[in-house]
């Protein structure tokens, strides 16, 4: 039986509104800080009323960057796009080809190759950081897109997922594709 308890509804809504306020207040403070000049942001009690400098600040960050030695925001956004696109494309290509070979080609030691790939999932990123940087430095690929993207393409997660998908495909479908 469902009972109507108005005090419980009021309490629940009050707690939800309070939770939303706690979550949204830092976002509002960040927005207000984006509309103020530097002196107003660093003033002892920062005002919570938006200022008139929003478009000026956005243009300044977009063109000049945040600090004196910082890259402009458009450059950082372009770097992020190039990195995400190349890592995604490379990881899907390499992982799909390796999983396809492991599932559909019959060659000696194919399960060993799969487990050699799969065992790398047990190595956390923290263990792989220094050796990866050392290899990239020895190959003289520091400060380049290739030095950033190539190590991140070599991941066993996508190979494992593609292998599991290819194993679900029926043999009849592959035979029909060969014809």
From TrEMBL:
Top-level taxon of the source organism: Bacteria
* Major place of residence: membrane
A GO biological-process term: transmembrane transport
Write down the membrane topology: Multi-pass membrane protein
Domain ABC transmembrane type-1 spans what residues?
77-179
Tell me yes or no: is Cell membrane among this UniProt entry's keywords.
Answer: yes
InterPro entries noted in UniProt: MetI-like, MetI-like_sf
Keyword list (alphabetical) reads: Cell inner membrane, Cell membrane, Membrane, Transmembrane, Transmembrane helix, Transport
Question: What are the TM regions of this chain, as residue ranges?
Answer: 7-31, 81-105, 112-130, 142-162
Instruction: Report the GO terms under cellular component.
Output: plasma membrane
Q: Where found, per UniProt?
A: Cell inner membrane
Family as reported in the entry's similarity comment: Belongs to the binding-protein-dependent transport system permease family. UgpAE subfamily.
Fetch the PANTHER family from UniProt.
Answer: ABC TRANSPORTER PERMEASE PROTEIN MG189-RELATED-RELATED, SN-GLYCEROL-3-PHOSPHATE TRANSPORT SYSTEM PERMEASE PROTEIN UGPE
User: What function does this protein fulfil?
Assistant: Part of the ABC transporter complex UgpBAEC involved in sn-glycerol-3-phosphate (G3P) import. Probably responsible for the translocation of the substrate across the membrane.
Outline the subunit composition: The complex is composed of two ATP-binding proteins (UgpC), two transmembrane proteins (UgpA and UgpE) and a solute-binding protein (UgpB).
- Protein name stated in the entry: sn-glycerol-3-phosphate transport system permease protein UgpE
**Species this protein is from:** Escherichia coli
Query: Mind giving the lineage of the organism this protein is from?
Result: Bacteria, Pseudomonadati, Pseudomonadota, Gammaproteobacteria, Enterobacterales
Q: Which gene encodes it?
A: ugpE
